[in-house]
Amino acid sequence: MDDTSLPLQPPDHRTPAWMLRARCREARAGEFFPSDGVGVDRARRVCAECPVKSECLEYALKYRIDHGVWGGCSERERRRILRQRRVTASR
Question: How far apart are CA 71 and CA 68, in angstroms?
Fold first, then answer.
């Protein structure tokens, strides 16, 4: 495993400014860590209208967050995005 595949650590413990504008701040955190597909769909509906959806997704990808719905994407979808980016970068 090379260094680019290791998860990065967030630079500090401050909340990124974009998180303060996220729609999920109004919801219970558990709603974004569902145990089934129905829960994922509910979380995606909140994300769909979020003004910081792309920042959220990029944060989860950058820091390799393994659990929950971030930027409207499930864990599986984020793994797929990262895999595709690695393939594209290696060409």
Answer: 10
